[in-house]
Protein 1
Amino acid sequence: MAGKAAEAARELAAEGVPQALASGDSTLWGPSAEAEAAIRLGWLNLPLTSRELIPEITNLVEKAQAEHLDHVVLAGMGGSSLAPEVITATADVPLTVLDTTDPGQVLRALRDRLERTIVVVASKSGGTVETDSHRRIYEQAFRDAGIDPADRIVVVTDPGSPLEQLAIDSGYNIILADPNVGGRYSALSAFGLVPSALAGADVVSLLDEAADVHPLLGEGEGNPGLELGAAIGAAALAGRDKLLLEDALSEINGLPDWIEQLIAESTGKQGLGVLPVVGADPGGAGDELVAVIGTGDGDLRVEGPLGAQFLIWEYATAIAGRLLGIDPFDQPNVAESKANTNELLAAAGEGPLPVGQPLLTDGPVEVYGELPGNPKDLSDVLTILLNQVPGEGYLAIMAYLDRLAAFDIPVAEDASFDEMADAWTAADPATLRALLAVRTDRPVTFGWGPRFLHSTGQYHKGGPQNGVFLQITGAVAEDVPVPGKPYTLGRLQLAQALGDLGALTGRGRPAVRLHLTDRVAGIAHLLHAAREV
Ligand SMILES: O=P(O)(O)OC[C@H]1O[C@H](O)[C@H](O)[C@@H](O)[C@@H]1O
């Protein structure tokens, strides 16, 4: 394997690819990708060009500090929030990220220090429904509290987007991003820097870290981006196309979630692609490739501080894309689930969404979908799904739930940290990943919906068709209207789940939806059923 990676890197160097990529050559991915690539390579120079933003960002930060706005909320999906999440977690500064349509999770943010809240509305396209909904909800909440939204909303978007126009009309602070950078490559652009700086992270150091590796990107030797991209691309071509991302020993917090979007959306298309697997222990399957961030054992190790990591992984993804023969800058299948969601909402009008009849009900969990083998209960359903995963395939769990709800679980006042952690784990739907992973030698992934729709969702629909899908939705206790729209967040969330389910079943993939009629009891029941064999 190491030999194949080195050979691929040598060949790429002999063809002059590193120099061409570093100088922004848009022809590297073939004629059909050229037009898109021509407007998508700006990320290569962000360590230098983003410095122009620093005075503007510093002004914004000083103004927010002067007004004591210390609760920073970021509304943004995919590339518009994943990088700030890692940057702030690594810098250990608080940032509330809204990349959900879960009413409970949005209400938690809304009810937290509104009088000291500043909201960054970040959307490259300016048309993303989740972000648009969050903006509407916060505008209303500020007005209801007698606060002028123009004093509290900062917009980050591309020049010319509908959101820019709206922000101008509304008198919002606007920071424009470099339009020649795609969403998932935008970590070092205004999308990564503005919310992170407001939250208190040192973004100049981040740019410095990236600038340190920048000169290496044109090199044929000693180029970490070339080596990583050649290793990922050569491994995938040889059938090792499940990329396990390990960061347990790293000082960088949460980078695998950002890498997941970059790799899954960039490579998962035309029936090809590399599946990132986050949070899993290596299972020894023949198609696994283990990449370690910082220190630890794996097939690949990527060293360096966060700013450098961003640039190296972006460059590596562009290189892997060339080796795989795909366009690493488009996301052709993401729109499909969005279109399904819009159609479902429009067709239902004010009536109920077409959820269908449950196949079975097991306590607080309803099971929707078609399955072979006549399952009698939830335990049977999970066993059948695991058995359906093909030899080269994977199981994807997709939870359209509140990802912070587990922390609401009551714990005894004198509980130790370990006891608290056990209580959270027992209430966390994400625990299902590990419980099912021990029952199969195939990778099991976990994504929060709709967040993953802007990440691995592309791979699920555009990559190799060997996934098996387990959706989880939940009853809504308290819903949130979206001002100016005919739907609530809860309705949008369910329509998103159904829209994606339709896209998956339409491809003939096995997919079921588990609906928790009582969320807390349903998660406990589900985790219990997953333990039974
Ligand atoms: O920044 P936005 O235009 O709102 O886009 C947010 C996300 O939306 C889409 O789903 C794309 O597939 C992602 O790559 C992007 O990061």
Note: The chain is about 45% helix and 15% strand.
Protein 2
Amino acid sequence: MIQLKNISLSAANGSSRMEILKNISIDFKKGKFYCITGPNGGGKTTLAKVIMGITKPDSGRIYFEGEDITDTDITERARMGIGYAFQQPPRFKGIRVIDILRIAANGDKGIRKSLKSVGLCPEDYMEREVDASLSGGEIKRIEIATILLKQPKAIIYDEPEAGVDLWSFDALVDVIRQNHTNNQALTIVITHQERILSLADEIIVISDGEVQARGTAEDIMPQLKSGICCKFRELCGGDDYAECIR
Ligand SMILES: Nc1ncnc2c1ncn2[C@@H]1O[C@H](COP(=O)(O)OP(=O)(O)OP(=O)(O)O)[C@@H](O)[C@H]1O
């Protein structure tokens, strides 16, 4: 459904250039649940931004449902049915929560339900502005409600757990899982959380701009836990993965 072919990207680093993504090729299949994990700074968010059309790769091609979308931007990709929940969602001063939900839903249908599904009381939030007054966890949940209303064919969540309290986290994981089961959308979650990783049909480990390992949760989880996953032992100095990313 989404195919990445030989994606490379570098950025200026003083007088030289730093390779952020190194020749990444991944074929994300329709209806599957993927998790992308790996150490901080490994290239996960950059890869998500390349898929969404926020960042253009130096080389390589991106395909969606067989169509080459490399030269399209985020608006076109969203229109085609690719949704992205930012690691740090943007804020819009002067725009109310209900306004962005209405745009997503193309009307009022399902708005209240979507807010409730992410654990927010509609009465408390619909008239609030999507500005700095919302906490990190609140804006993250509102963004997820927006994306679920759009019902994209493919959804990328960038660390949905970030800033969300433990109790709400459990509910949020259920929302992501249920949406995946009900809509059979392609789901890609960038995460460090074992609870989400364990839901994956496939886990892709990205470190140092490269795919270091991939496989089922059954295959990869024990490797992540014992720190023997490819370069992790080297990166962690022998500590286990959980310690490495803490
Ligand atoms: N525009 C840029 N210019 C220079 N360096 C960049 C740029 N964007 C990303 N980087 C660097 O590329 C590397 C990968 O960043 P990225 O945000 O993709 O990592 P990540 O795996 O998502 O990390 P985290 O788990 O902390 O979210 C980092 O070293 C980051 O500093």
Note: Residues 235-241 have pLDDT under 50 and may be disordered.
